[in-house]
Amino acid sequence: MGLTILLTICWLLLTILITYPKKLSRRECVFLFLVILDINISVSWILGYELGKIEISKQTSTYLMYVVYRSVLVPLLPVLCINLLLVCRTFLQKTLPVAGYLVAVWGLETLCIRYKAFTFPDFNMLKELVVAGSYLLIAVLLLKWFRYAFAKEEVGLP
C-alpha cells in the first residue's frame, strides 16, 4: 500500500515538474537533481549502512519504498521548490513553497515510517526538517554556482 502511494506521489510530482511553467532550464533541473541525489545517497549510505542510524526494511516492497523515497522524491522536491521560488515575486509568496516543501518532506517521512520502510532508533522530526532545509539550501547554492560558472551563452540557456 505504501509503495503504491509513493509511486502515485512520484507520478504527480513529475507531472507537475513537466507541466508547470519553469524558470529553470532542463540542464539546471538535471544538474540539481543529480547532485542532490548524489549527496542524499552518500548521506543515507553513511548513516544507514555504516553508522547504523537508520534501520532499513529487509522486505522487498518496503525496501523499494525506501529506495523510491531516497532516490526520486528527496531530490525532486528541492528542484520543484526552487522552480516555485523563482516564479514567486514577494517574500510572502516565497515562504509558501518553502513551507510546503517542509510539510511535504515531513508527510513523506511520516508515511515511510508508518509503513516501516525505514525507522530511526533516535527519531527527531526537527532534525529531519533541518536536513530537508539543508538540501534546499544546497540546491539554491548549487543553482547560483551553476549560473555563475556557466554563462547563458556557454550553456545555451534561453
Task: Tell me briefly what this model is.
The chain crosses the membrane at residues 29-51, 63-86, 129-150. 78% of the residues lie in helices and 3% in strands.
Question: What is the count of DSSP helices, taking H or I runs of 4+ residues?
Answer: 6
Q: State the helical fraction.
A: over 70%
Radius of gyration over C-alpha positions, nearest whole angstrom: 16 Å
Low-confidence stretches: none
- How many domains would you count in the coordinates? 1
Transmembrane segments: 29-51, 63-86, 129-150
Keywords: Membrane, Transmembrane, Transmembrane helix
Describe the structure.
It is built from 6 helices and 2 strands, in the order H-H-E-H-H-E-H-H. It has one domain (25-150). The protein has helices at residues 2-19, 26-50, 60-87, 91-114, 125-149, 152-155; strands at residues 55-56, 118-119. Strands 1-2 form a two-stranded antiparallel sheet. The radius of gyration is 16 Å and the shape is globular. By secondary structure, it is mostly helical. 78% of the residues lie in helices and 3% in strands. The chain crosses the membrane at residues 29-51, 63-86, 129-150.
